[in-house]
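pasting input
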Amino acid sequence: MAIERHLNDTVHVTNLEWFVNWSRKSSMWPLGFGLACCALEMIATFVSRYDLSRFGMEVARPSPRHADLMIVSGTASKKMLPAVLRIYEQMADPKWVIAMGACACSGGIYKNYAVVQGIDRYLPVDVYIPGCPPRPEALLDGILQLHAKVMKEQSIKNPRVPRIKAAGQ
Amino acid sequence: MKQEEIVKKLSGVFGPDVIQSTTEFRGEAAVTVAADRILEVCRFLKDDPDLSFAFLSFVGGVDWYPQVPRFEMVYQLYSVKHRHRFRVKARIDEKPGADPVIDSITEIWPTANWHERETAEMFGIVFRNHPDPRKLLLPDNWKVHPLRKDFPVIGTEEDTPDLPKRAGGS
Ligand code: SF4
C-alpha cells in the first residue's frame, strides 16, 4: 500500500465492497420486537450486562423502516404470522433475519395447529440460533456469525434480494 | 360457609330437576345443573346474601367425547365477602346437525365475556345472548374448534393454514 505511506498514513485504501460491508455490519440496527419467551434473553442481551452496543447494535428500532435486522425471538403463532411478514416487508433493504430459539427455527416444542413450524418457511433466515431459550452468549455468537457473513457478501456486484418465500418452500 | 352447606342451600331452593348431581373431590363440592336453568342458578348464587358469589374466577369447557352428553361447562365461583369457593357444572348435549347451546352468563358476571368467547371458539359451544360473539384468540378465518377431542393436534393445511387464504385462490 504505497500510496498510504506516501501520504503519511493519513488515508486507508480498500475496495468499495469491503467498505460497504464493513459499514453495514458495524452499525446493524435490530428491530425491537419479541414474540415469546426468547425475547427476554434478547432484552438481556441488549442491556448493560451483555451490552450489545459493543457491536454497534445498541439502537433497537421500534420502527421497521429504521431497522436492518429482524431477530425473530420466539414462537411465531399463525395468528401473528401476517403481522411478522408485514413488518419484514416494511424494513428497508438491505435486511437480515436471525431465527432465535427452537421455536423460530422449527416450531420447537409446539408441534401443533397454532404455531408456524419454523419461520424459515416464510422469511429468508441468515442465522439460526438453537436453544430454548438461547443464552445471551449464544445470541451474541449468532450476531457475530451474521457479521462475518455480511463481510463475505458481494454487496456491489451481486446484491441479494431479500424477499418473502411462498408458503412451504 | 362450608361446601356441604352451600350444596344443601342450593338443593333447598332448586329441585332435583335442576340440581342433577353433586360430586365431592378433596373437600371441594361441585353441582351439575340443568343447562337450560344455568342463568337462574347463577343469579341465585350471586344474589343470595349467605352465598354472594360476586366473583367469577373462571369459565371453561370440557369435551367428554365420546360420552353423551358430550360437552360440559364449568364455572368457578368465589365470594369475596364470605371467602368461600364453589363450582358449578352443566352438561350440554350436541344435537345432530346443530351446535351445542347454553345461555351466556355475561349479564350476571360481565367477566364471563372473554371466557365464553374463548370457550366458544375452542369447543364450538354457542352462548345464547352473548353481547360480543367474536373469536378471541384464533385467527378470524378459522372455522374449526381445536380443543375438541376429535380435532388433530397438528391441525390440517385446509382448516388451520399458516396464512389466511387470499380470496380467489393462491
Ligand atoms: S425456543 Fe423456548 S424460550 Fe424460545 S420462544 Fe420457544 S419456548 Fe420460548
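fyi Helices of chain B lie at 3-13, 38-47, 112-123.
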